[in-house]
Specification:
Layout: H1 2-9, H2 13-31, H3 38-50, H4 58-71, H5 76-88, H6 92-107, H7 117-202, H8 206-236, H9 252-257, E1 262-266, H10 275-295, E2 300-308, E3 311-318, H11 334-344, E4 348-353, E5 359-366
Parallel strand pairs: 1-2
Antiparallel strand pairs: 2-3, 3-5, 4-5
Helix pairs in contact: 2-3, 3-4, 4-5, 4-6, 5-6, 5-7, 6-7, 7-8, 10-11
Length: 370
C-alpha cells in the first residue's frame, strides 16, 4: 500500500485534476439518456470544470456540482467534491448539511414532475448512504495526516530530549574533569611552586637560584592557565562565572618577563589588529619561548613585532644553547598547531634553524583576520 501511495503522490496534480474532470464529464454523458437543454449542459459543464479548483474552494465547488446530482442519482462530480471538502474541513455540522444536500439533490425527480413519495424516500436514503461514504473516507485521510504529523512531532521531541540528555552527560563529565583538575593537578603544581620558592631561597649557586625562580614563575603561570581551563569547563557545564578573557598583545610583556629566558621584546603594533590575530601572535610567542626553554638552555631570545602592508607579524629568534638540553616530554604538535591556526586566519608560519645555530619562528597574518 505504501508503494502504491508513493507512486500516486508522484503523479502531477494537474494531471489528476484533468483526469477527474474528464471522468466526471463522461459520467454525466453516459448515465443520462434524455436530451439536455442548454441550461442543463451549462450547469453540468460548470460543475465538472469546477473540480479542478476543489482544493482551493472545496465548499464552493461542492455547491456548483449539486445541479449534476439533480440529473442523476449517483454523480462522480458530487462525490469527488464531497471527499475533498471532508478531507479539508473539520466542521462536522457543515459536512452533515452537505451530505443531506447531496442526498436531497440526488433523490429529487428530474425533470421536475410528480413522483411517488415512497420511491423518493427510498432514493433519499440511498443517496444519503452514498454521500456519507466519501465524507468518511475524507475524514479518515485527514485523521491519518494528523496522526502522521503528531508522530513526527513526538519523534522530534524525543530527538530533542536525547540531545538534552547528551548535553547533560557532557556537562557532568566536564564538571567532573574540572574538579579533578582543581583538586589534583592544581594541588601538585602548587606544591611545585612552593618547593621551587623554598629552593630559590636556600640555594647558594646563582644558576640554581635562577632555575628555581624560573620553575616557580612557570608554576604560577600554569596555575593561572589551569584556573582558566577549570572556569571554561565549569561554564560549559552550566551557569558559572564568565570565562577569563583570551590573551592579547597587551599581555606579551608579562609573557616575556615570565618566560624564564633572556628575552628582548621590540616593535609595536597598532591597536586596530583583530582579536583573532592578536591571539595567534601571542600563542606563537608563547610556543616559541617554551621551545627555547626546552631545547636551547641559556640561549637569548628576541621577539620582534612588525607590520607589512595589510599584514602584521612576529618573529621569535633565539641564539644557540649555551649548555646541553634535558630530554623533556613533548607532544611535537606545537608548531603544527600554530601552522593550522595561521592557515585558518589566511596567514603563514615559517620555522627553522638559523645560520648561526639558533632557531627562528616567523608568523604573518592579516591585520583584520577573523
Amino acid at each position: 500500500m505504501s508503494r502504491a501511495r508513493a507512486v500516486w503522490q508522484r503523479v502531477p496534480t494537474p494531471v489528476i485534476d484533468l483526469v477527474l474532470v474528464a471522468v466526471a464529464a463522461v459520467d454525466v454523458l453516459v448515465v443520462n439518456t434524455w436530451e439536455y437543454s442548454g441550461t442543463e449542459v451549462a450547469l453540468a459543464a460548470v460543475g465538472c470544470v469546477a473540480l479542478a479548483f476543489r482544493r482551493r474552494f472545496p465548499l464552493a465547488v461542492f455547491l456548483l456540482t449539486l445541479p449534476i446530482a439533480l440529473m442523476q442519482e449517483v454523480a462522480v462530480a458530487v462525490l469527488a467534491a464531497l471527499f475533498t471538502l471532508a478531507e479539508r474541513s473539520r466542521d462536522r455540522r457543515l459536512l452533515s448539511v452537505c451530505v443531506v444536500l447531496a442526498a436531497v439533490a440526488s433523490s429529487t425527480p428530474w425533470p421536475l414532475a410528480e413522483a411517488d413519495r415512497t420511491m423518493t424516500l427510498v432514493f433519499f436514503v440511498y443517496g444519503l448512504a452514498t454521500s456519507v461514504a466519501p465524507v468518511l473516507f475524507g475524514q479518515l485521510l485527514q485523521a491519518q495526516r494528523d496522526l502522521a504529523r503528531r508522530l513526527a512531532e513526538i519523534e522530534e521531541a524525543r530527538e530533542h530530549e536525547r540531545n538534552l540528555h547528551a548535553q547533560a552527560v557532557l556537562a557532568r563529565e566536564r564538571a567532573q574533569l574540572a574538579r579533578e583538575m582543581h583538586d589534583v593537578v592544581s594541588h601538585q603544581v602548587s606544591l611545585i611552586a612552593v618547593r621551587a620558592g623554598a629552593l630559590q631561597v636556600a640555594a647558594k649557586d646563582a644558576d640554581a637560584k635562577e632555575a628555581a625562580r624560573t620553575i616557580r614563575s612557570l608554576s604560577v603561570t600554569t596555575l593561572d592557565e589551569l584556573r582558566t581551563m577549570v572556569t571554561l569547563l565549569r561554564a560549559s557545564g552550566g551557569n558559572a562565572t564568565e570565562p577569563t578573557p583570551q590573551p592579547t598583545l597587551a599581555d606579551l610583556r608579562k609573557l616575556v618577563a615570565s618566560s624564564g629566558t633572556h628575552t628582548e621584546l621590540t616593535g609595536e603594533l597598532p591597536p586596530t589588529v583583530g582579536t583573532p590575530a592578536q591571539r595567534a601572535l601571542y600563542r606563537t610567542v608563547q610556543e616559541a619561548l617554551t621551545n627555547v626553554r626546552k631545547h636551547a638552555p641559556g640561549a637569548h631570545a628576541r621577539v620582534e613585532l612588525w607590520q607589512d602592508g595589510d599584514g602584521v607579524g612576529v618573529t621569535v629568534t633565539n641564539t644557540p644553547p649555551t649548555r646541553p638540553s634535558l630530554s623533556l616530554p613533548g607532544s611535537q604538535q606545537g608548531l603544527v598547531g600554530l601552522r593550522e591556526r595561521a592557515e585558518i586566519l589566511h596567514g603563514t608560519l615559517d620555522a627553522g634553524p638559523t645560520a648561526e645555530g639558533g632557531y627562528r619562528v616567523r608568523l604573518r597574518v592579516p591585520r583584520s583576520a577573523d
